[in-house]
Structure formats: C-alpha cells, structure tokens
Amino acid sequence: MGEQTITGVLPVELYIMVVQHVTGKSDFCSLARCSSIFQVLAEPYIYHSISSRYYLKFIKAARSILSYPRRHGLVRILDLSRPGDRLRDGFHCSSIPRLVARLLLVTSNLQALRVHAFPQSRWFLEPCNHPLLNTLSVNIPRPTEREEDENKVGMYSLQYVERHPDIKHFIFHSAWSISSLLPDSTNILPNIDKLYVSGNDPQRLLKNRHLQTVWVQVRPNGWSLLEPALPCLGAMGSTLLALDLSKSWLQPITGPMSQGMQSLMKNLPRLRYLALPMTGIDQRDQDEVVHILRSCPQTLEIFMLNYEDLVPSIPEVPLKFFDILKSLKWIIFMSYYESNSDGVYTKEHPSGGCTNKSELRRVLWDLGIGLEPWENGMQDFEGVLAE
Description:
By secondary structure, this protein is an alpha/beta fold. It has helices at 12-20, 25-32, 36-46, 55-67, 84-90, 95-106, 122-125, 150-162, 178-181, 203-206, 222-226, 230-234, 255-265, 283-295, 316-324, 358-367, 382-385; strands spanning 49-51, 77-80, 112-116, 135-140, 169-174, 194-198, 213-217, 242-244, 273-278, 302-307, 330-335, 343-346. It has a 12-stranded mixed β-sheet with strand order 1-2-3-4-5-6-7-8-9-10-11-12. Helix 7 links the parallel strand 3 and strand 4 (135-140). The longest helix has 13 residues, at 55-67. It starts with 11 loop residues before the first helix and ends with a helix.
C-alpha cells in the first residue's frame, strides 16, 4: 500500500471485515469510491489482475496504475493476450506501445504474465525483469504481411524467458514449429514443473525434463506429431502426475495409437490424471479406451474423455470403466463444442448427477489442471465443476 496509512473513526479491523465480505471487481470499485480508507483497502483487489480482454477497460486500468506509484506493486496477474487482434492492431498507434511498455516496467511484483508475442511488442519485453514471475504464457501467432519473420519473434521471446529461469509454469502456443523458434530449448526454464505446449514438435520442450503436469496440443494429423514425444513423456515416470492429450488429434483411436498409449501408461507409475480425445462413440472406440485403461497405473484417480461432438448418453460406459480400474474416483466426459453436455461420474453416481464436487476441485487444484491464472487454462472446467 506504499506510504498510505489507514486512519478513521472506526477500528481498522472493522474496515477490513467489510472488505472481506465484498466479492467481484465492480463491487470493490464501488467500495473504493466511498472513502479514502476503503480505497486503500480495496485497491489490492482491484488491481490484482489486469486483462486486455476488454480493450477500453484495459487502457483505463493501465493509465490508472501508471498514475499512482502505490499501485505499481499491486498487480500480480497481467494478461495482454485478448482481444489479441485488436491489441495487436493497436500497436501500430504510437500511444499503445508506450503504455504497455511502461506498465510492464513498473509492475515489478508480477507473478503471472500472458502475452501475445507479435513483432511490434519486441522492444517492450526486452528491458523487463519480474523476479517473482511464476507463470508465463506466450502465444506466437503467424506474422502478418507487414510483420517480421517468425525467427525474430522467437528470439525476443527466448531472451525474456532466459532472464526468468525460476518460472514454474510455462504455457507456450506457437503457429510455427518449436524448433524454428527455440533451436536450443533444452536449457531454458530448468525449474518448470507444469508445461502446456501447443506446437508441431512438442518433444523440443519435453525432452530431458521431469515435469508433474503436461498438456500437449498438436493438430491436425495430431498422432503423427505426438508420437515422437512419447519417449520424452515416458522418461518422466518418476514425476509425472497429470497428462492431458485431449486436444491432440482428430482421428479415431486406432490400433497404433492405442498401442502407443498402452506402452506409455506402463512407464508412468505415479499418474493421477489422464485426458484423451474421442472422435466417436462406437464399440471399437470404447474397446480401445478399455485397452488403454487396463494399462494405466493403480494411482489413476481422474479419467477424462473430450468428445469431438456432443457427449453421448451411454450410462453403462462409466460403470465399465470403474470396474476396469479400481483406483478411479472420477470420470469426466466433456464436449469440445458443447459445454452444456459435460458430465461427472463417480462410483457413487456412475450414471451421472454428481453434485458434491469439492473433492474433485481440490484434486484438480493440487495437480494444476484447469486452474491457471486465466479461466481457459489447461482445460475449461467451469461447467464441469459447477455444483
């Protein structure tokens, strides 16, 4: 709170109790307008997380933070990725780059940063240092015709990454091959334990690492791109607790895919969470999933299938899965296109209708699944976890 002190006609504890009963950023903003005391107490909640999702609100918040030095250290989460195209286009305006550059320079207490890495933004990342940074999300889209080539985008992204070796959670989206952007990726971020990678050659970031949580997305022709990464995943047997491949291919689970997954499961004795994609609901698809489940370790607690279409209504399928793997506590069916058809099944409710999901929420939190600083982390579990 900087140099400000809290003095008023009531004990400080009473003001704090009022603040603790407030939920929602708009309510904190209203409370801050009531008095200078409430303003001091509410500002850490107001400026804790700043997002560019709403373009004009982001510009207003950034200017408000820059205007008062006491607010610089309050920002913990900064999301500069959305709306990606509009913020990207805004960098051709002279005022926007300076605004974002100044914001990144003064928010020295950042713990999570999410950035759309397009070439115009290179110069504002280069001088920044955030010693408390724990989570970094970098999205590298294809450059437009008026932008530079992708190798230069990768260079400045890598320079910023190399200055923050203590990052624990790394989220990396790339429209290009990872090897062309990060030619020597084995030495960067040696301390990460959670990795979300979307790119054509994920093994470049998976090799020689001992991770706890891995989310991989490769498509189209996902299996041919994912298969080279399986040895890297299998080498994480002593550490890997959660593996999400649910958006990694669009083909049915055929023999080679099933066999590859079965071999991988035998090398992951500590796995607690597994998510796979499903393109169909016929008996062959079910049989292949059964073969994979039979190869899973007896530590697996959560099994998720992400259906390409609507989640099927086959009540006997979860019951069959529970019978195969006794360690399972939850089975989650999700739909890639229709969140309203998500379902959670437990041994007590094998036909669905589970309402008490607090324990599932706790386990997902422990594993770092779907609970990144942004609402669309590894998976969007908002609908699944709703009571």
